[in-house]
Amino acid sequence: MIVILLGPPGAGKGTQAERIIDHHKLTHVSTGDILRSSVKKGTELGNKAKEFMDKGELVSDDIIIGIVEERLKEPDCKSGALLDGFPRTVVQARSLDKVLEKMGRSIKAVIYIDVDEEEIISRLTGRRICRECGASYHLNFNPPQVRNVCDQCGGGLYQREDDSFETVKQRINVYQEQTEPLINYYEKNNLLEKVEGNQDIDEVFKEIKKILEN
Description:
Layout: E1 2-6, H1 13-24, E2 27-30, H2 31-41, H3 44-54, H4 61-72, E3 81-84, H5 90-103, E4 107-114, H6 117-125, E5 127-130, E6 136-138, E7 157-158, H7 165-188, E8 192-196, H8 201-213
């Protein structure tokens, strides 16, 4: 079983990925992880990827596809895999289709956790981090007992630059530009399953579980 997980930043993909992997006994295939692993192992594709990374450039599609293909051929992926962070574009999606066809495998479902922009902004801009111990808080979901003071060590809390309104808005715009064509691609192929991501974490997983079990 090959499952693809899509969703905007702040949609809760990490939390749901852990639950899907645990419940359905799938192997988590994250492009970031496998890229780092290939570079560390010094594989042919890993060395090519390192050349791009050392220059601060995006790793080319053909190298990413090759590394994903290598990973899917490993024994722990035989019973199934959850692809996280890949594909990001229609070009990558088409290449993945060819790779899977060659392997005699196919995508079972593409799960898209759909969260509205207002909710994403609220989730991401509300995060606060302790300067001293690194503890994490959220102004709405997990606020400190005293405003801007860490419950654990008394250190001051701050908002990361990544979580500022301007940065979050930009991340959402980039995601929408990249991903909307991908969503349309999988819709046309009758693979896309939209899940309402504004609801409680447990409810989101209940919907995902139902999709995969059907």
